[in-house]
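Re: the 427-residue chain
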Amino acid sequence: MKEIFKAGIYRLLFLGLNFLVGLFIAVLSGTELFGTISLMIVNAALLHLLTALGADQAIVWHGASKKFDTNKLFTFTFFTAFLQLVLFFLVAFLFFQYSGRTLLSKNYTTPYFYLELLYFSGLIFLDKYVSLLYAQHKARVCNFILTAITLMAFIILVLFRYQVIKKEIDPFDFFCLLTFIQAVTVISFFHIITEKVRFSSFKKEDIVSFYRFSGIVFITNLIQFLAYRADFWFIDYFKDTGQVGIYAQANRFAGLLWILPNIIAALLIPVMSLPGTNLKEKELAGITRIFSFLNIVIIVVLVFISFLIYSFFLQPAYASGFKPMLLMLPGYYFFSITIILAAYFSAKNLLLVNLAGSIICFTSIAVADFLFIPLMGITGAAWANTIAYSLASLFTIVMFLKYSGFKPGELFILQKSDWNLIAKLQR
């Protein structure tokens, strides 16, 4: 449990610094270029999902549960990443040749093609090797490395922003290069600490086990992703890229509510997947109560800090995103509970529950986006988020109560024993 706590602290630092890096990139870019970067991120994430077929979660589960040894896990990881990269290059090259535009950012210049290839390569291998390290229960040191790299990137951006370094920096170039450097560092670390790792043969049942798990995860993740990011495409289609940039920054503020739940979920899956684990539903309910309470506190702080940032740091063009951010917060709060509970269903191999919740979320947000965004723009997208995330959260909570036998109050009302759980996490 102590390892979970330490890994969570480093992950929190990494994601916090990542947010600050994004904030400075938004300032240096302006709404139009930041909208382009945001669309590239969304399009790359979709292609990553389509080509990975749920492999990242399958890597963590098969490694943490001791289904595969290190060599076999590495073999699946490497060839999955290699196949993804080859597929992306072929699709991106053909798209650029026939349309004259790049696949991810829809730019017309050749340098952007190579920058997108660099970014996507980094994205693929970073996710795969992070999954490998999580599967080996090395989350703490993995997050420490990512935190250190992101801290250096943040310092560099500060120096450029305040003209300590009196040169111009291209935010697009910087963002693509940062992801690639993170990937190379994590890859190097894995191969340094893992002695004599080599390619391994595998049996037919290994492939069946791997892709049976990853197949359901793939469908769930794809539906979830479309639910999370379909609004970017709707806004770009019905409005413009500048509005995407404004909305993306508001979305990043609201997304801070998901930092803690995502950290704990990523760390809980390998622990709960271990044979004979002592982390039971009672402890998970306690963790949910703690983070639900913390997120209420975070909302209050977030509204105050974001108001100051919108007023005194970001360009005035971003100011119209403050109201949509406020409208998103209730939905993001309720869905933060779903993120933690979804980790329980994944670890227990109850993947169909997560799939059903994702379908509910996607269906409701797609309908709401289509109805609200043409009329209200980014404000309509914010309303759609809150409606869809709240409905999906209600379903997931009901299913967890069904499987665990708990009462609703046991997920939301803090208990005296929860403070003992915090102490337990640190031991």
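Residues 78 and 128 are 8 Å apart (CA to CA).
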